[in-house]
């Protein structure tokens, strides 16, 4: 698949260099995440790329209407709102990828610790009541 | 169980105003007052713990009418005035002092009227009851004053003839260990009566001052009459009577019925052939023998020297050539050659068997001899009680080899011993039984039903009947070391011997007293005994069982149930209800419930353990899920952004 991506990028540079420039700048967070994301499936890269794409969609449409001129691309890139939308979206996606798992882990850990304490208490009660040791439990 | 000093068998109280008596053989007797009839002149004879009373007389024949004889009227446990516990037998008081205290020679008429006739009448009555006296001697004959007939003293408080001096016993009885002389026959009583008459007529005990072995040897060498009457001037009537009363062959002695007519008895002449004597003696281990009876005696005394003489034919050759008795030589050859023909292994038991059978073949009156120990077949059980080690070892071999059977095969003249064949099998079975309730102790208690249990756990308590065992243990509990079990081999064997066969399972389960199964078996044994005997509350024994861990609930699984049960068991122990303790500790339905509960608990534990393990191992999985969820959430938000941007562009 890597070769197909390479052909796509090459074609874009050859036939729409202004679009390639615009997208390269606006999607820069996604590219940076892709370089750092070594996990299988690259879920974080995908999330950041989609979020950046949401911010890059409107400038790309305006560039398309301006017949893909370099000047139009530079003008669009010089608009801070476009950069803010694309890069901010990527930043939000990255943040969600970091914060949500940590939050869930914490909640789940507390819940499991409470459950483990309940189980251990019940086990102790059973052992005390029935004089069961590890061996007798294992034999059963 | 009487607790009060001086009280015997509940009803009898020792009279402190009258001194205790010492009877023949050292037995002690106490004048007692019957609480129900204080006018009766009674005495209580204290039996010795090592000499069991004669059960056939004490229990079976109490109250039978035998003239001129003190008979047991009642019996039971009790304490003397010092508090010593014992087994007492109640009888009429002695009419006066023992006739041995009068040292002057008696006149002929007085001997006949006051001794011969009343004792013969008593022996006749005893013979009718199938009993013997076996304790006739001047120390055991009593009378109030001169010209009064004598009264025969106690003969039931010890094994037959066990307290009898050897001089009053025929040689074949005197050879036996004192406690192993057996019931004997009325002819043996006639012999003792003869020696008693001789003692009274001469004013002294014959052969006094000589040891028993010398007396026995002299009797064997020259015959009882000659040995005892040598150098003694006797009235003609008495001399004639003694000649037959002291005959070596019991069949030649007059019966009690004949003795009731002294003139007829003295006129009776038995043509007994004098024993053959050899010119040249046979040396048996240093003892020179001249007659068959001497040879038999020497063979029994010296079995190690005897066997080679028998094996190489020296004894047989001597009998044929020197004694001139080919018939006896042939009988001896039958005994010594038969095992060789049958290829019987020549071990120690075989050698003893050959010596024993040879002694019997040579002398038909010989007792059963084994390793130099002589005993009558029906005296083995009593001889085993408190026997010295070498005697006990020899007798155990006799029982294990059923040596009584070949002995009896050679004793056709003694039909009264036929029952001993059956007993020999029972003895061997008891001796061979295993566990603490088996072995020689079982044999001793089973074969001596009047023997007191010798367990040290009973302390100062006497137990002769099974009914007294639990109350005795209950009383002994106060001073007992309660860390030790209230059960030992003596008690186990005693119960096995006296209880019925329904307790066999519990007795077999005893083995030791350490494991939980054995401890439960002990509790079961006591619980069943309590149910059967109904001895009343036994709080002492209950506490003892509880404290020594014999009513333990340790192996119960449920803590809660155990706690509840322990409280109930303690209450039952305090109330002295052993059977109730047993029903609580040994409740099969409750046990099954407990086991089922424990199994369910174990299963639940396994489930919980699995859940706990899962919590430990699922952290990584949860991390991955959380991460994926974060990614999906961000992707979803991004897609919404894309959609929103597309919609916005479309609208503009």
Structure, described:
The complex is a heterodimer of chains A (140) and B (652). Chain A has 140 residues and is mostly helical. Helix content of chain A is 87%, strand content 0%. Chain A is elongated, with a radius of gyration of 27 Å. Chain B is of the alpha+beta class and 652 residues long. Chain B has four domains: 7-92, Phosphorylase Kinase, domain 1 (2-Layer Sandwich), CATH 3.30.200.20; 99-267, Transferase(Phosphotransferase) domain 1 (Transferase(Phosphotransferase), domain 1), CATH 1.10.510; 283-444, no CATH class; 453-586, no CATH class. Helix content of chain B is 50%, strand content 9%. Chain B has 28 helices and 13 strands. In chain B, strands 1, 2, 3, 4, 5, 6 and 7 form a seven-stranded antiparallel beta sheet that branches. A two-stranded antiparallel sheet of chain B has the order 8-9. In chain B, strands 10-11 form a two-stranded antiparallel ribbon. In chain B, a hairpin with an 8-residue loop joins strand 8 and strand 9. Chain B starts with 6 loop residues before the first strand and ends with a helix. At the A-B interface, helix 4 and helix 6 of A face helix 27 and helix 28 of B.
Topology readout:
The complex is a heterodimer of chains A (140) and B (652).
Chain A: H1 2-15, H2 17-26, H3 28-36, H4 43-65, H5 70-78, H6 80-130, H7 134-139
Helix pairs in contact in A: 1-2, 2-4, 2-5, 3-4, 4-6
Chain B: E1 7-8, E2 12-14, E3 21-22, E4 28-34, E5 37-46, H1 55-60, E6 72-79, E7 85-92, H2 108-128, E8 141-142, E9 151-152, H3 171-174, H4 186-202, H5 212-222, H6 224-229, H7 236-245, H8 256-259, H9 262-267, E10 282-284, E11 287-289, H10 292-301, H11 303-311, H12 314-321, H13 326-341, H14 348-362, E12 368-370, E13 373-375, H15 380-384, H16 389-400, H17 404-409, H18 419-432, H19 439-447, H20 469-476, H21 489-498, H22 504-508, H23 516-533, H24 539-547, H25 559-574, H26 578-585, H27 588-617, H28 619-651
Antiparallel strand pairs in B: 1-2, 2-4, 3-4, 4-5, 5-7, 6-7, 8-9, 10-11, 12-13
Helix pairs in contact in B: 2-4, 4-7, 10-11, 10-14, 11-14, 12-13, 13-14, 18-19, 19-21, 20-24, 23-26, 24-25, 25-26
């Amino acid at each position: 698949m890597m070769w197909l991506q390479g052909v796509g990028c090459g074609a874009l540079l050859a036939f729409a260099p202004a679009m390639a420039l615009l997208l390269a700048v606006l999607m820069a967070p996604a590219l940076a995440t892709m370089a750092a994301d070594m996990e299988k499936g690259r879920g974080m890269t995908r999330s950041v790329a989609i979020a950046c794409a949401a911010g890059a969609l409107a400038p790309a449409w305006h560039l398309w209407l301006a017949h893909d001129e370099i000047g139009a691309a530079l003008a669009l890139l010089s608009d801070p709102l476009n950069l803010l939308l694309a890069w901010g979206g990527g930043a939000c996606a990255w943040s969600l990828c970091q914060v949500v798992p940590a939050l869930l882990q914490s909640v789940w850990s507390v819940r499991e610790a409470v459950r483990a304490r309940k189980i251990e208490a019940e086990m102790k009660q059973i052992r005390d009541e029935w004089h069961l040791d590890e061996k007798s439990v294992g034999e059963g | 169980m009487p607790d009060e000093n001086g009280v015997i068998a509940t009803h009898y109280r020792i009279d402190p105003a009258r001194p205790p008596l010492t009877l023949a053989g050292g037995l002690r007797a106490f004048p007692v007052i019957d609480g129900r009839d204080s006018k009766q002149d009674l005495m209580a004879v204290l039996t010795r713990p090592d000499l069991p009373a004669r059960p056939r007389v004490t229990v079976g024949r109490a109250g039978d009418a035998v003239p001129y004889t003190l008979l047991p009227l009642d019996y039971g446990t009790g304490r003397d005035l010092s508090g010593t516990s014992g087994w007492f037998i109640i009888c009429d008081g002695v009419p006066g002092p023992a006739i041995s205290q009068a040292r002057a020679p008696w006149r002929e008429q007085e001997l006949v009227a006051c001794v011969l006739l009343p004792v013969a009448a008593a022996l006749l009555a005893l013979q009718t009851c199938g009993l013997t006296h076996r304790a006739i001697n001047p120390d055991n004959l009593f009378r109030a004053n001169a010209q009064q007939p004598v009264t025969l003293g106690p003969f039931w408080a010890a094994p037959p003839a066990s307290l009898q001096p050897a001089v009053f016993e025929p040689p074949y009885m005197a050879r036996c260990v004192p406690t192993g002389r057996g019931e004997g026959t009325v002819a043996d009583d006639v012999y003792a009566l003869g020696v008693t008459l001789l003692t009274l007529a001469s004013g002294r005990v014959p052969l006094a001052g000589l040891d028993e072995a010398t007396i026995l040897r002299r009797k064997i060498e020259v015959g009882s009459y000659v040995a005892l009457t040598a150098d003694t001037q006797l009235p003609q009537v008495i001399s004639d009577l003694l000649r037959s009363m002291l005959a070596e062959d019991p069949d030649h002695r007059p019966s009690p019925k004949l003795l009731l007519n002294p003139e007829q008895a003295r006129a009776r002449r038995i043509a007994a052939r004098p024993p053959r004597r050899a010119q040249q003696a046979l040396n048996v281990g240093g003892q020179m023998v001249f007659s068959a009876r001497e040879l038999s005696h020497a063979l029994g005394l010296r079995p190690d020297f005897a066997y080679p003489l028998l094996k190489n034919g020296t004894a047989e050759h001597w009998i044929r050539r020197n004694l001139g008795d080919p018939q006896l030589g042939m009988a001896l050859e039958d005994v010594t050659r038969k095992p060789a023909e049958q290829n019987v292994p020549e071990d120690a038991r075989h050698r003893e068997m050959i010596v024993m059978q040879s002694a019997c073949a040579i002398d038909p009156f010989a007792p059963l001899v084994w390793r130099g120990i002589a005993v009558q077949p029906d005296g083995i059980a009593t001889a085993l009680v408190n026997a010295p080690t070498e005697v006990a070892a020899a007798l155990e071999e006799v029982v294990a080899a059923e040596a009584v059977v070949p002995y009896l095969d050679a004793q056709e003249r003694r039909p009264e011993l036929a029952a001993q064949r059956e007993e020999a099998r029972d003895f061997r079975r008891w001796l061979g039984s295993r566990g603490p309730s088996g072995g020689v102790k079982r044999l001793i208690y089973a074969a001596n039903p009047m023997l007191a249990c010798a367990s040290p756990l009973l302390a100062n308590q006497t137990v002769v009947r099974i009914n007294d065992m639990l109350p005795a243990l209950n009383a002994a509990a106060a001073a007992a070391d309660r860390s030790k079990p209230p059960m030992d081999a003596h008690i186990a064997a005693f119960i096995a011997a006296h209880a019925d066969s329904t307790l066999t399972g519990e007795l077999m389960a005893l083995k030791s007293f350490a494991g939980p199964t054995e401890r439960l078996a002990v509790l079961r044994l006591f619980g069943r005994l309590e149910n059967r005997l109904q001895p009343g509350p036994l709080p002492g024994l209950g506490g003892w069982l509880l404290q020594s861990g014999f009513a333990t609930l340790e192996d119960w699984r449920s803590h809660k149930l155990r706690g509840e049960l322990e409280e109930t068991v303690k209450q039952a122990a305090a109330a002295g209800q052993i059977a109730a303790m047993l029903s609580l500790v040994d409740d099969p339905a409750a046990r099954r419930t407990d086991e089922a509960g424990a199994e369910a608990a174990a299963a639940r534990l396994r489930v919980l353990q699995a859940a706990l393990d899962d919590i430990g191992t699922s952290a990584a999985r949860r991390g991955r899920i959380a991460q994926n969820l974060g990614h999906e959430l961000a992707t979803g938000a991004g897609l919404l952004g894309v959609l929103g941007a597309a919609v916005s562009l479309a609208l503009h």
